[in-house]
Amino acid sequence: MRVRVTGALLAVLVVAGCASPEATSEPAAKAAGAGAAADRVEPLADTPEPRLPVTVRSADGHDFTVKDAERVVPLSGSLSEIVFTLGLGDRVVARDITATFTQAEKLPVVTRNHDVSAESVLSLKPDLVLAEATTGPAEAMGQIRDAGIPVLVVDPAQGLDDVGPRIQAVARALGVPAAGEELTKRSEERIAAVRKDVPKKTDEPRVAFLYLRGSASVYLIGGKGSGATSLLEAAGAVDAGAESGLKKDFTAITTEALAQAAPDAILVMSKGLESVGGIDGLVRIPGVAQTPAGMDRRVVSVEDGVLLNYGPRTDAVLKSIVGQLYGDTK
């Protein structure tokens, strides 16, 4: 989630992001299983060989030279996904807690509740650290830079148009720009193929993105800037929260906000759905049962670690959303 988590939701995640889900009901387990994208990334067929040194500009305005890329530390699940999919996963020596795909699961974690541990990162002697604009705390990132470690900050993902630029930024820093172009082309072609198969509907379904952490009593509805709008529009749907006039990225769920959004379906992260006790628990949240989505129990569930990454697996995320919204679209 760190890719798109800003403002109020980032504060929520620091408190609740690592809380253990409550007991999972059978409907929740089924929905989570249906909505989860594949747990593995798919590297390019040919492993590229980095050509270094290379001088790059970070999104925070710093110019620096990458001399080696034998030991890389990506500080978000999305950035880890890009490195592994470029075929350079054997160079990654640590992960952020949001890197949940299979190839990364045995790597040491260098974040605590989404905060970077500078000591943990530096102990691994990285050649390059990859970070998001929201990666922090600032003191930890400063310690890493002060130790002379190159830190590439990548522009945040706002939507589907950011998939290619983020891939290419990472690829340039790793000295494999051609592989970045290849992966961008593959990713964009796959997204386009999914969009082509979206059923044509006269009435676009209204979908509300809810961020849920029942163990911390956190219930939010996404508005403009939540990160979900681009995906929903690509799936032929309307972002109900944004369209209803919610200006903030996330707002506390109220009966009034849900009534105004009037969603036909609800988009959630799988662990969030589990944390409220599945669909049975979701419809007990005040206001949910009175929406068309609540009455029809129409829920779209996607794995937390991939939903808003806007990376090489975005086509799988989009396909999952489309499949759950409209039924199997083979």
Q: Mind explaining what this structure looks like?
A:
By secondary structure, this protein is α/β, with parallel strands linked by helices. It has 14 helices and 13 strands. The protein has helices spanning about 5-15, 25-35, 75-90, 120-125, 140-145, 165-175, 175-195, 230-235, 240-245, 255-260, 270-275, 280, 290-295, 315-325; strands at about 55, 65, 70-75, 110, 115, 130, 150-155, 205-215, 220, 240, 250, 265-270, 300. The strands form four sheets. Strands 8, 9, 10, 11, 12 and 13 form a six-stranded mixed β-sheet that branches. A three-stranded parallel β-sheet has the order 3-6-7, sandwiched between helices. Strands 1-2 form a two-stranded antiparallel ribbon. The chain starts with 6 loop residues before the first helix and ends with a helix.
Draw up the topology in text:
Elements: H1 7-16, H2 26-35, E1 54-57, E2 63-66, E3 72-74, H3 77-88, E4 111-112, E5 115-116, H4 118-123, E6 128-132, H5 138-146, E7 151-154, H6 163-173, H7 177-196, E8 206-213, E9 218-222, H8 229-234, E10 238-239, H9 240-243, E11 250-252, H10 255-261, E12 265-269, H11 270-275, H12 278-282, H13 292-296, E13 299-302, H14 314-326
Parallel strand pairs: 3-6, 6-7, 8-10, 8-12, 12-13
Antiparallel strand pairs: 1-2, 4-5, 8-9, 9-11
Helix pairs in contact: 3-6, 6-7, 7-14
